[in-house]
Automatic annotation (TrEMBL):
PANTHER family, sorted: LACI-RELATED TRANSCRIPTIONAL REPRESSOR (PTHR30146), RIBOSE OPERON REPRESSOR (PTHR30146:SF95)
Domain HTH lacI-type, first and last residues per copy: 2-56
Stored SMART domains: HTH_LACI
Pfam families: LacI, Peripla_BP_3
Electron transport is among the record's keywords: no
Keyword Transcription belongs to the record: yes
Name used for this protein in its record: LacI family DNA-binding transcriptional regulator
Organism: Paenibacillus ehimensis
């Protein structure tokens, strides 16, 4: 494999000159620049990105840690983050933590070794001090880990209000709210807070059902929803805190001969692409996922200037009414 010394020797210049060409530093004549690039091509020389990042003190790499890459929400998020990072000249190192603290720590160590410019965290399973002491730029996604760590989210409380108010306006008199485990410190818990405030204000009978601690384990959803209908057969409205859970609710209603929306009205959350493909199409609360992804990348880049460092970026949500209500 060719080295920078081989390129310098073939081009008849110093190693310092080749380095300046690679990093676009200092004055280099156009003739010398063309000669160096021609020799690099002839030798099939691949620059050492890690060595270059040490020189520039910038790797143009961003780490992205998410809990489940197969989950539609996180798959779409990763797609948008990669796009906007690439537009800014950076690449993504994607880490799939699966909510495993050992795996998450391994990925954090790997990202530090690769000197990433920053980490976007869509998963956190470790003690706060681990993230606080990373020594690099970090932005959390829909998680407020610590007051010193910037985060980005949508307006979860507003989303809970919009979903619950729609079900009440549609005449639902007994509403079930299916959410993640509220023991987890998630900003999405504010959707549940909004739900409680709305049903209590309007004196609506309600039930709250939580998943177990692994909120992304889809195997539990069908069991939870079946038990919900067995114990509360008079439910006529469901607000689920994800489109995936809402989709399972539609499926179980179909199996139980409960018509949607005539017998049960269902609202999801996120507006993943599949929400509009379902039959019936899913009413949901749309998170501005692409804008959130772009903002997360921007926040990593802007942390270079500490005086302009944002601690929070909260974006508005939108109710998208389709056939399930």
């Amino acid at each position: 494999m060719a080295t920078i010394h081989d390129v310098a020797k073939k081009a008849g210049v110093s190693v310092t000159t080749v380095s300046r060409v690679l990093n676009n530093r200092g004055y280099i004549s156009e003739e010398t620049r063309r000669k160096v690039y021609r020799c690099m091509e002839e030798l099939n020389y691949q620059p050492n990105d890690i060595a270059r990042s040490l020189l520039r003190k910038q790797s143009n790499l961003i780490g992205l840690i998410i809990p489940n890459v197969s989950h539609p929400f996180f798959a779409e998020l990763a797609n948008h983050i990669e796009y906007h990072a690439y537009q800014r000249g950076s690449k993504i190192l994607l880490c799939n933590s699966q909510l495993d603290p050992v795996k998450e720590q391994d990925y954090i160590d790997m990202l530090k070794r690769n000197r990433v410019d920053g980490i976007i965290m869509g998963s956190h399973t470790l003690e706060v001090d681990v993230y606080r002491n990373l020594g690099g730029k970090i932005v959390t996604f829909d998680r407020q880990i610590d007051v010193s760590i910037p985060y980005i989210s949508s307006d979860n409380y507003m989303g809970g209000q919009l979903a619950t108010r729609l079900l009440i306006r549609k005449g639902c008199r007994k509403i079930a709210h299916i959410c993640g485990n509220l023991k987890l410190n998630m900003l999405s818990n504010r959707r549940t807070s909004a739900f409680i405030d709305e049903v209590q204000q309007h004196n609506i009978e309600h039930i709250i059902v939580q998943t177990d601690m692994n909120v992304f384990d889809q195997k539990q959803y069908e069991r939870i929803i079946r038990r919900l209908f067995e114990e509360h057969p008079d439910i006529d409205g469901i607000f689920a805190t994800s489109d995936i859970i809402a989709t399972f609710a539609v499926k179980i209603c179909h199996k139980l001969k409960r018509r949607v929306p005539e017998d049960v009205r269902i609202v999801g959350y996120d507006d993943v692409n599949a929400a509009s493909w379902l039959v019936p199409a899913l009413t949901t609360v749309r998170q501005p996922l692409e804008e959130m992804a772009r903002s997360a990348v921007d926040m990593i880049c802007r942390q270079e200037e500490e005086r302009n460092r944002e601690q929070a970026c909260v974006l508005p949500v939108e109710l998208v009414e389709r056939e399930t209500t």
